[in-house]
Design goal:
single chain; 68 residues; mainly beta; 3-stranded antiparallel sheet; two-stranded antiparallel sheet; 0% helix; elongated
């Protein structure tokens, strides 16, 4: 992650690993990197992020996890 990602309500995503992100408005999409693009049957993969909040921390309008 090259720079912090500022989100609504004073939230900031400061670190991201095992993925890359795109942001549109208040939405963020995290996608795999080349080394974790294919997960074998019964395999696993993870990604993670660190964030902080300075202000109101409202619940997200929606949160989802999908697989192609």
């Amino acid at each position: 992650m090259d720079h912090p990602l500022d989100l609504p309500n004073g939230q900031t995503m400061t670190q991201l690993w095992s993925g890359s992100y795109t942001a549109s408005g208040s939405g963020v999409t995290v996608r795999n990197l080349s080394y974790n693009a294919a997960v074998p049957a019964n395999g696993t993969t993870t990604f993670g992020f660190l964030g902080s909040c300075n202000g109101t921390n409202s619940a997200p309008a929606s949160l989802s996890c999908t697989s192609p």
